[in-house]
Amino acid sequence: MLQVKVFDFLKDDERKSLGDIDNYILNYIESNPDEFVRLTQNEICERIFITQTSLSRFTKKVGFNSFKMLQIHVAKHLEKYLIIPELKLNTVVELEDVKRNIFEQYINLVKIVFSTIDDNHLNSLINLINSRKKTCGFRNWFFFWNW
């Protein structure tokens, strides 16, 4: 699964103040949110080789009262990006239903991709392009040239 920004509410300075273990846990949750929601606290600790105390401290540092509250937050965040096929194969389907379903799935995929964009990386790319006097780009049929 794509990495989903579950902790997008954390400010940059809050993210920077997290320690190595906290960043390790954060990256695990954002890389495996569906797995994080399914497993118990003990199973997660065994899987990623951390102590339950480390996970409890991380939970408090990111603003949750308990591990279950953190799991609920992650589950609610995942719910936004869940792709649920509504059409059943054994029913007669109208063309409008198919088009609506495709559109909804497309919107969900766009949300997933949009949530994975790293703002710092995007800003550095924009600054790099703006700082160059000569710019050239290609994308399928699209071409731009800036001299």
How does this model look, in words?
This protein is mainly α and 147 residues long. The protein folds into two domains: 1-79, Winged helix-like DNA-binding domain superfamily/Winged helix DNA-binding domain (Arc Repressor Mutant, subunit A), CATH 1.10.10.10; 82-147, no CATH class. It is built from eight helices and two strands. The chain has helices at 12-17, 20-31, 33-38, 41-48, 52-61, 67-79, 95-115, 119-131, and strands at 135-139, 142-146. The chain has a two-stranded antiparallel ribbon with strand order 1-2. The longest helix is centred in the last third of the chain and has 21 residues, at 95-115. The two termini are 40 Å apart. It comes from Mycoplasmopsis gallinacea. Residues 5-81 form the HTH rpiR-type domain. One of its GO terms (molecular function) is DNA binding. This is Putative DNA-binding transcriptional regulator. Pfam families: HTH_6 (PF01418).
Biggest sheet character:
2 strands, antiparallel
Please give the number of β-strands: 2
Low-confidence stretches: none
* Total helical segments: 8
Tell me the Rg in angstroms. 20 Å
Quick check: average pLDDT?
81
| Count of discrete structural domains | 2
Strand fraction equals: 5-15%
CATH fold description of the largest domain: Arc Repressor Mutant, subunit A
Binned, the helix content reads 55-70%
Keywords: DNA-binding
Domain HTH rpiR-type: 5-81
InterPro entries: Homeodomain-like_sf, HTH_RpiR, RpiR-like, WH-like_DNA-bd_sf
Protein name: Putative DNA-binding transcriptional regulator
